[in-house]
Give the backbone structure.
Amino acid sequence: MDYALRVENLGKLYSINRGGSPSVGTVRERLARGVDQLLGRKSDAGGVHAMTEADSGASEARKKEFWALRGVSFDVQAGERIGIIGANGAGKSTLLKILSRVTSPTEGRAEIRGKVASLLEVGTGFHPELSGRENIFLNGAILGMPRTEIRRKFDQIVDFSGVEKFIDTPVKHYSSGMYVRLAFSVSAWLDPDILILDEVLAVGDQGFQKKCEMRMKDLTKEGRTVIFVSHSMATINQMCQKALYLEHGRAVSFSSVQEATEEYEHDVIEAAGIVIVPPHERSLDNPADRGGTGEARVVELNVFGQVQAEGLQCITSGHGLEVEVTFEVLDDLPGAGTLDLAIGIDTAAGTRVFTAVSSWEGVRYPTNRGTYKARIAIDDMRLRAGSYLLSLALINASTTVDSIVHCGAFRVSGTAELAGIPWRNEHGATRFPVNFSQ
Amino acid sequence: MSKELTVISAERQDGTYWRDIWRERELFYFLAWRDLLVRYKQTIIGVAWTVLRPLASILVYTFVFGILAQLPSEGVPYTLVVLTGLLPWQLFSLVLIVSSDSLLANAHLVQKIYFPRLVIPLSSVVVCVVDHLIAFLLVFGLMLWFGLWPKPQFLLLPFVTLLAVACALGLGLIAAALNTRYRDLRQLIPIVLQVGVFICPVAYLTSLVSPKWQMVYALNPMVGIIDAFRWCILGRTDIIYPPSILVSIVFAVASVAVGIKVFRKMEDSFPDMM
């Protein structure tokens, strides 16, 4: 097969001295240590000596080593768009740095076929004293664009950035928005076989972000191989076909973007501690996110799906979900039987899918002191596969009495494809019964 | 179909290094261009400074060594003694300072983009040489003032310039590499240079050193460079020590060779150290 990138068992070992400083020292310390060694003195543990112990063999044990990346292997075919996902410190940036040859690996190898352009940062090499025009040429050269090519694309770059009025002003006088826009614009007209991107889309105002996204999509459509790091699952889903999921420097999975992002989102929920205590055992006494006056409170929450797996209630998309809420009214509330129960469903990324309020359905709950049980049955949950979170609130006469965010979770499976057509993130989290007719 | 293959591994890929440098000549050009732009951004004032700074030093040294101390100048106007000593010395110091500082000054590039790192110190030299050429206006001015006509060996000056650059660049490469590891090294260099002004024949003639010590004195490679520079402009062999030029040539070659070797050896660790 015609691969564009082949990564085999790649690893990067960093050593950090005790106290967290990398092994950079000063000549003064080096000399002091040399003198100590010469005189047969043992260097004392504290003070300046400890900081540079790394390169004195005697105190090897002080050196702390960690693998920022280890045993990572994957192949990318020419023209494929790969997302790299994972939490902070998972090794994403290290991987990009190795692939763009900024830093060399400790072990393993990677083979790249074709011309690489890497954007680990927007506006690398921009100089504040130079004008916008001068910086375009400088930045272009740094990114590997020949002068003739920059000249040819110059008008497009300036036009895209929208700073033509200030193109001959030193960029130190630019607003930060203008600066970033100009910086990104140069990168947007690169023409490599393989493009390595690190979160660079998150610049400028919303309008410009859209523009960048469109430009990036155009770029990727032209048959380029793209390696893209982002924390935004939505962007990854839109732009990439496959995703590499990294955790603590190791590859958890390398699969379709659908599977990888779901797995990641699932792990994020788990890491947030919601699944570790299954919802029905969860004490609702003192969660941090609790709001409202506290005159009434939810004391128990049970979610009933079709099956339970990995501590989560699961349903197949299109099936029903039941939620049982027990709440206690601590003292008689104003009004008679006017208490509202609301439930909200969020995606794992925190986007609200929908909210249901009991009074919208013509139901209200008692306001007198006592403990009550409410059952919420949601039929026909046509949700995209993935993990979801639910939040609850008790409202009386437009006063929030109790609210608790993300107190439960459930999982939806089985809609990676519908009638052979993939249901992606960009299609939305839910679908409605719609009649198409001829 | 046959696209270029890049292999990334823990073992160094030496084969492509010089090819890569050649490929990055555009970057070399732009980095040098950037340094020049930034340095002479205030055009007239920027250029004027480049002439005024050495002129001030020349006047001070002439006054102190020529008029107060009355050091022998073998019939050469003392201003010319200082001029021909100071210019190559300033070139040497500037190249050494700028190249040894170049990596840290461009740390943001080193950490974000790959290219052969040698491009950075190499391109930083350009601005020093341009500075030197501008300061050269003083040579023409003072030669005119003292009614000195250029000798044929005047044409050998580019070679002397190259010699001074090579000596300084080799040392600068070593210092630049070590600078990433030992951060106080950059404070050490100005001190060394300060002492150097007096160790080297900047403000006096080599012939001032007694003949039996001249051989030892000439082991300082800057002696040969300054002597060569003086010979090119003043055309006198009696005030210099010719064998010192040979020492400088040997030192220049060795300095560049060792400098590149040390730089290359430490190059891979730069991004992680900075």
Notes: The domain at 290-437 of chain A is CATH 2.70.50.60 (Coagulation Factor XIII; Chain A, domain 1). Confidence is low (pLDDT under 50) at residues 18-22, 43-61, 273-283 of chain A. The CA atoms of residues 278 and 311 of chain A lie 6 Å apart.
